[in-house]
Design brief:
Blueprint lengths: L9 E6 L6 H18 L5 E3 L8 H13 L4 E6 L5 H10 L4 E6 L14 H14 L11 E2 L1 H21 L2 E6 L14 H5 L3 E5 L1 H10 L6 H12 L9 H18 L5 E5 L6 H5 L4 H9 L4 E2 L4 H14 L3 E8 L3 H7 L11 E6 L12 E4 L1 H4 L8 E7 L3 E10 L5 E10 L9 E6 L3 H10 L6 E6 L3 H10 L7 E3 L15
Parallel strand pairs: 1-2, 1-3, 3-4, 4-5, 6-7, 6-8, 8-9, 13-16, 15-18
Antiparallel strand pairs: 10-11, 10-17, 11-16, 12-13, 14-15, 14-17, 15-16
């Protein structure tokens, strides 16, 4: 099993302005750490004990200490007003993700010697961060008591993991985008801007590596895994050995090509020549690797697999990549949704892909052939999809994208998969997002987004929004589904 998910240890460094009692920061830091360890995993954090940062020398000492302790994320904690230069220099010289939070006053009975003024200090800290062009996460309301600040640090965890992951990610792609899929093509310059490496390969290189894995002694064990996973849904047992050979090819490629990077995601080719040359479609293997924490996108969708990786880290769960595919028929809406769920017909749509969603995220699954491809190819070379309805429950539909003119933008929308039978094929579900019709028109269409969207299971918009902000997506370029009555800039005011 490949360890492909980032882990973080957050170093908590308390700071103090030298004209305030140092004891304020010391005691408040201890209370914060106690509050965190009582409620959350103590392994998440490290309390820097050697000093309270009041000067640049203290800053260097603290930086060395948290690095030695293995911290790859930083929490600068203003126990009082704080030294605006030293605390922001600490953030400048720390290479991983960082956050700033501040201590609230504890009691009305101690507002003379016990008043810390961190509420004021946070303003100066934020100003100095901007002066130095330093990125840092600041919570929506960054001032709180020990318990409040413990919760803030815990909310920072998935954000910090995503930033750490992106700083150490390599995307491996195979082949150019298929013909008529220019929508999934985008400049790779923004990958470098956010710290991601990319290795682009020919699908011929992949085919050569696949052929070299013929007869690999590990194939039977992988086939057995697949048989156990599919159970009664194993409708194409004759194709499993080839799929296992392909899975081993990708896993070995990752290990041989990750280089100095800790984490990997794959943008894979799946048509038009893939089926005829390999003799199958890769959908099921894509689902299995994604379930192992190695996201794989279809149709060489580089920003799709980047989005999948971010969502996997933030949600700590399997994600999938789907086409925002087709409308829900009016008779299906009338029979199965209207009056049962609080959604209009325009709030609903179907998310679909050929068969790339992990079996654990499907209500049922069967190994089948790719029906769309089989309309023009022999059925036997289109086997390898995993079909089934996606499990009902909360989802986040989202995507990070570079535009054709090399600008980062993103969208996020909370919704759910409804418990409605799709009566269709592929990995598919009936989705509902409040005000989806307007979101579809004024964010997805107006923003020039491709048809692929990443799906995280659960509502994770808050963390995704902060990750996108942190890596440099302008806030005005993060689209979301506006509630009824709030007009999009491009929306006709007369309806």
């Amino acid at each position: 099993m490949i360890d492909n998910m980032p882990k973080v240890k957050i170093g908590i460094v308390a700071v103090s302005r030298d004209c305030f009692p140092e004891s304020l920061s010391v005691n408040r830091r201890k209370a914060l750490v106690d509050a965190y360890t009582k409620k959350y995993d103590a392994a998440d954090i490290y309390e820097c004990p050697i000093c309270i940062v009041e000067s640049e020398i203290h800053m260097v000492q603290a930086l060395e200490d948290i690095k030695k302790a293995g911290c790859n994320a930083l929490c600068v904690y203003l126990g009082n007003f704080g030294p605006e230069i030293s605390e922001t220099l600490l953030a400048k010289h720390f290479e991983g993700p960082k956050m700033f939070i501040a201590a609230a006053e504890e009691t009305q009975n101690d507002l003379v010697q016990g008043r810390g003024d961190a509420y004021c200090g946070m303003l100066n800290a934020s100003y100095n961060l901007q002066l130095r062009n330093i990125k840092a996460y600041i919570p929506e309301y960054p001032v709180g008591d020990a318990e409040d600040c413990a919760d803030m640090i815990h909310e920072f965890l998935p954000i910090a993991k995503a930033i750490e992951g992106l700083n150490n990610l390599k995307i491996i792609s195979f082949g150019p985008r298929p013909l008529n899929f220019l929508a999934c093509n985008a400049p790779i310059k923004q990958l470098y801007n956010i710290g991601v490496e990319i290795e682009e390969n020919s699908e011929l290189d992949l085919f050569e590596a696949f052929n070299k894995h013929a007869g690999d002694e590990r194939i039977p064990a992988v086939v057995k895994e697949m048989e156990e996973e599919l159970g009664a849904g194993n409708k194409k047992p004759e194709i499993l050995a080839k799929l296992a050979q392909y899975e081993l090819t990708l896993l070995d490629w990752i290990e041989a090509h990750r280089g100095y990077r800790k984490y990997v995601a794959i943008a894979g080719k799946c048509w038009p020549a893939f089926q005829t040359q390999f003799g199958f479609v890769p959908c099921y293997v894509n689902s299995r690797l994604t379930a192992k924490g190695i996201p794989v996108s279809c149709e060489v969708d580089i920003y799709g697999c980047l989005s999948e990786f971010i969502g996997t880290v933030v949600s700590d769960d399997i994600v999938t990549l789907l086409d925002i595919n087709n409308s829900v028929p009016k008779d299906m809406y009338a029979e199965s949704i209207e009056g049962k769920f609080n959604y209009t017909h325009k709030d609903t749509f179907m998310g679909f892909h050929c068969g790339n969603t992990a079996s654990s995220k499907l209500s049922f699954c069967e190994m089948k052939y790719q029906m769309i491809m089989a309309r023009s190819l022999p059925v036997e070379v289109t086997q390898g999809t995993l079909e089934g309805d996606i499990k009902p429950g909360d989802i986040t539909f989202y995507r990070l994208q570079s535009t054709s003119d090399n600008k980062l933008r993103a969208y996020i929308a909370h919704g759910e998969v409804l418990p409605v039978a799709t009566r269709s094929f592929g990995s598919i579900g009936v989705f509902a997002i409040p005000e989806m019709g307007r979101f579809y028109r004024h964010v997805l269409i107006e923003g020039g987004y491709p048809h692929h969207g990443a799906v995280a299971f659960g509502h994770h918009g808050k963390a995704l929004f902060e990750v996108f902000k942190y890596i440099g997506v302008p806030v005005e370029e993060i689209g979301y589904n506006q509630p009824a009555g709030v007009r999009y800039p491009t929306e006709n005011p007369w309806g």
